[in-house]
């Protein structure tokens, strides 16, 4: 039996869609990298019983595991987000795009 061709198979993907998908994948990769750093680091270095408060190492008054496991990734992700917004994510002109007739 002959199957009808999809009406979408003969036309290329919209460039606006492709760029938006690339932007979303970059953002998702940034989120995944941050999660893969923060969760294990905080678990392994911050989740243990402390019997003597003098054992807690601090950086600028913050426990070191919070500094390296939460604060630094937060700052890095903020800077990466700003860089993405300024140099990578762009507005697309939708005025000249024709909608396909159905």
Describe this entry's structure for a reader.
The protein is mostly helical and 102 residues long. The protein is built from two helices and two strands, in the order H-E-E-H. It has a domain at 23-47 and 61-90.
Features:
two-stranded antiparallel ribbon; single chain; 102 residues; mainly alpha
Order of helices and strands: HEEH
* Dominant shape: elongated
Instruction: Please provide the count of β strands.
Output: 2
The neighbouring-strand order within the major sheet is 1-2
Tell me the major beta sheet. Answer: 2 strands, antiparallel
Q: Output mean pLDDT.
A: 85
Q: SS-based structural class?
A: mainly alpha
The gyration radius over C-alpha positions equals: 23 Å
Quickly count the helices.
Answer: 2
Strand content: under 5%
Provide the low-confidence segments as ranges. Answer: none
* Proportion of residues in helical segments: 55-70%
Distance between the termini: 25 Å
List the helices and strands and how they pair.
Layout: H1 15-46, E1 58-59, E2 62-63, H2 64-88
Antiparallel strand pairs: 1-2
Helix pairs in contact: 1-2
Summarize, please.
This protein has helices spanning 15-46, 64-88, and strands spanning 58-59, 62-63. The chain has 102 residues and is mainly α. Helix 1 (15-46) packs antiparallel against helix 2.
């Amino acid at each position: 039996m002959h199957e009808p061709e999809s009406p979408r198979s003969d036309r290329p993907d919209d460039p606006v869609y492709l760029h938006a998908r690339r932007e979303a994948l970059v953002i998702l990769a940034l989120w995944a990298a941050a999660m893969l750093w923060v969760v294990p680091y905080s678990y392994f270095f911050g989740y243990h019983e402390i019997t003597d408060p003098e054992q807690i190492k601090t950086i600028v008054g913050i426990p070191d595991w919070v500094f390296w496991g939460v604060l630094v990734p937060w700052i890095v992700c903020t800077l990466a987000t700003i860089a993405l917004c300024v140099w990578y994510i762009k507005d697309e002109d939708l005025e000249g795009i024709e909608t396909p007739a159905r």
